[in-house]
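Structure request: Phosphoribosylglycinamide synthetase, ATP-grasp (A) domain protein, Serratia proteamaculans.
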Amino acid sequence: MGSKIGFIGSGKLLLDRAKSFGLYVVLIQKQSLASMEAIALADSVLLCDYDAADNKKIILDFLREQGIEKVLTLSEKALPAAAWINDELSHDTKNSTTAEIVKNKILMRDTLKGTPYGNVNYHAVRSANDLSQAAALLGFPFILKPSRGVGSENVHLVVDDKQLPTINVQQTLIAEQYIGGKEYSIEAYSVNGVHTVHAVTEKSLFDNEDSRFVEHGHVVSRENNDGPFFAAIDDFVCGFLSLIGIESGATHTEVKVVRSGIHIIESHNRVGGDNIPELVYHATGVDLYSLAIQDASGLPLDNTRKPVSNNSGILFFDFEPGQVSSLCGEQRVKLLPFVKDVSLPELINAPLSRPVDSFSRNGYVICSTPEDVKSKLELCQTLIKPIYI
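Returned structure:
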């Protein structure tokens, strides 16, 4: 039998690639999340709740019986399980330690304190009194968000003291100094502690009140991936990744850049969401998913950074709210030569609303071109039209 790979909480996107490399594929998945496509691709499957403590022995026995020494996931929800499993298989604790630093935003800020990367003031909020202390420490405005949140859910801008009594602290939150400037995400892959930044991705946000922290789009451009700007971000983020203990695997780190410097917003030990790996591939030819599979299975991999040959971007559609019978224009958009993918929600005699988080957006288009990709994305937006009732 050839090389093997173990996946946890994964689907067709990763398993299909793994099989194309000729790998023996082992899958652990929750029964409620398991797709028939993924099960068909796997050579051996264990369906169980990998978050349940009672299943730890079953999972480890299964993996050892299959000869798996390391599991891979790029799913946010499966990252904690992958960390403890890899610690058990390697008789170490570093995977869980690093996973907790990037998951727990308060712990990450504590870890960065006193270093060049700890240049964002913050305060842990577990009560109304903590919230008042945060306001006194940070001033207005400041950001308030769950300490373990994902997907831009429940992220708020607190603008004055009149807002404080309206905030019900029901979970551990983190209050952070508001940083202006443009926001970027840094897509990197690390091998044996050596970090390679494959792309700097520029982020844009929706401009209406309820979705001001929800991503409207992302662009990988030549402009942001060359010269002094890229060099400064590359140096800063690679230093940050080393500090928090990243040794191998994909990372997605969000930063804001202002005149005074670069500020870490948050980081994740996985690829970016919002189809960012697809943008990186269309821009550079580097497939972050394949790198992760090759690394986890022991196959040779080329982690060399490649230049941006095409400007690539994704735009999440923005429509006026209302009752619609349907959306039209998808087929015209698909015919455009620079369009790589387009996805629309199935809306038939349904309400159309603006997003409040990453999970409530109304479809997207991905474009790649040697020309100005932002204008291509905007053209696609004009061609998709709601039919209002």
